Amino acid sequence: MLTDVPLKSLRPKDKVYKVADRDGMYVRVMPSGAISFRLDYRINGRRETIYLGRYGRDGISLAKARELCLDARRAVREGRSPALEK
């Protein structure tokens, strides 16, 4: 499970990479250094991904991303696609 300290210490690499958090949420680190929160889920037999937001001063916090993740997982349990609703 991630905290703010390891998130702030993530450094860009030559290729995009992912770091898992919990409940299916992960962060994607771009070569530019941008860090974004995402959630992969399955609905109706299809794999979908929802973008929850960008981390940092101009984006959302880890706590807010986890709230959005829980909301999205709730929608999936109810049979709704959070990516389509967004």
Automatic annotation (TrEMBL):
Signal peptide: none
Domain of life: Bacteria
Keyword annotations of the record: DNA integration
Xref: Pfam families: Arm-DNA-bind_3 (PF13356)
Domain Integrase DNA-binding: 2-86
Homology family: Belongs to the 'phage' integrase family.
Name of this chain's protein: Integrase DNA-binding domain-containing protein
Taxonomic source organism: Aminobacter niigataensis
Organismal lineage: Bacteria, Pseudomonadati, Pseudomonadota, Alphaproteobacteria, Hyphomicrobiales
